Amino acid sequence: SKSIRFEVDDEQYERLKEIKNKRGYTWKGLMLEGAEALDTGEP
User: Fold this and answer.
1) pLDDT score for 33
2) What pLDDT was estimated at residue 12?
């Protein structure tokens, strides 16, 4: 199992938390959804 950790400021945290809760995601789910949205298939 691997882990990912990073720091965000208070404003970023509140924005991410709001999106996470609104969509019913876990933190992992939010990150994976963001990665999927950014994946264009380009190298």
Assistant:
1) 95
2) 98
Closest by alpha carbon to 34, among 42, 26, 2? 26
Tens-digit pLDDT profile for residues 22-33: 999 999 999 999
> What is the DSSP secondary-structure string of 10-39?
HHHHHHHHHHHHHHT--HHHHHHHHHHHH-
Please give the radius of gyration of the chain, using alpha carbons only, rounded to the nearest integer: 12
Q: Which residues of 3-40 are buried (b: 16+ CB within 10 A; e: fewer)?
A: eeeeeeeeeeeeebeeebeeeebeeeebeeeeeeeeee
- 6, 40, 9, 1: which is closest to 30 by C-alpha? 6
